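Aim 2 progress update. The chain analyzed this quarter is reproduced below.
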Amino acid sequence: MPTSIKQGLEQKLQQKLSPLQIQTIKLIEMPVQALEQHVREVLNDNPVIDDTPASGGDSDEPRDMSISEMEDRENSGGSLEDTYTSYADDDPTPYYNRSVKNWGPDERPEYNTFSVKQSFTQSLMEQLGYRNLTDHERSVATFIIGSLDDDGYLRRDIESLVDDLAFRAGVETNAEEVERMLKVVQEFEPSGVGARDLRECLLLQLEDKKQTDSVRNAIRVLRDGFDEFKGRHFQRLMTRLHLDADEMKAVLEEIRKLNPAPGGQIDDSYDDQASQIVPDFRLDYENGELILSMPRFSIPELRVNRKYAEILETGRYATDRSQKDAALFVKQKLDSAKWFVEALRQRQNTLESTMRAIIEYQHDYFIDGDESSLKPMVLKDIAERTGFDISTISRVVNSKWIETHFGIFPLKYFFSEGLENSDGEEVSTREIKKVLRELVDGEDKHNPLTDDDLVDALTAKGYKVARRTIAKYRSQLDIPKARLRREL
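Predicted structure tokens:
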């Protein structure tokens, strides 16, 4: 049976992003610290561009030209775009590689960054170096250190470590030696490191402390009644261990001072941004007016290095192939810088427009920081006010912070869903969470409020919230159940 062939026209609508749009989207996602680092990398990668201030007019030295001045020269003397585009079309493959990276020494050492932190693993390895161990024992201890989680726990059983040491490290050992080397690691700082569970972690820390009566009682509680302690069955513990109320309170105070995640004391990231918050925006309240600024970053004034400007000028009229090639390389790098500056400008405008829309929407809140004034707000609300796409608003909000006269906040903080109160008004879920927190903070700790009690209390205040919603909000606020909040 012959195959039928059909011919027809089909119309498709496709939307493609321009290189400038793609670059702008990437810049919008960056917080200010990452952006500053990216700008330095771009400048280092482009030998044609300088961002140093222009030299004074009295100097006899030829000065660098701004990009706008270079464009004026293009317009007055004929388009460089036409000159070099036509040349590139005639000979698209110059004799040298145009994609070569041109890296030079950083002439601004104040921009260099150094890691001044010691990683968690490095700290343990340094302490291991002071121990008098054989090479074999040191290999076993090193493997144990490398097997610790970020919080300092060893969550692998001894037998699996023995197997891994043999197969992955080529070290023959046994469970007894691994256990002995683990005891060595557990003697290191921070106290509690190398524990296999929370109970062992807390006990290691207590054993390192001065052995007072309260410390010894705390050790007894964790060693002999850990399950009861976790369940906060304090009365049962007191009866079984023969402790009175004051002694039990002293035990709880000792345990509260302990660190359940000793590995978290030392940063293992080598990333200063992980421990620093650098606000992208600053909002001041002066004379009854909210004033927004972006003080940490401004678009750099890029200038064309005079040496490359001369190459570009010479190449306009040159007949020599090498001069033409060099000028074309400079032109490509100059165009790249123009696109980058325009992308930075669009990022600046997008961030500022978005932040102003948020401030306008939450104006009452930004006056005094009262959470009860925070209105329900979703990404769509700001997208409609700015005219930007919701995905653009999401990129702006992500990883950005603002400094206000009442604190520093991530932009995500100001977005929340809404619920209706008893008057039919929409209130922010953040407001409800604030009231929930206040209720828990003010409760009788000897008889804490259950979720049903919290529903009744919120209803009395005019908030219509279901019990499952209370449980969800309580979980988000890290508020334990009533039984676990009970105190002596």
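Residues 418-485 form a domain with the Arc Repressor Mutant, subunit A fold (CATH 1.10.10.60). Confidence is low (pLDDT under 50) at residues 56-62, 78-117, 267-275. These observations will guide the mutagenesis experiments scheduled for the next reporting period.
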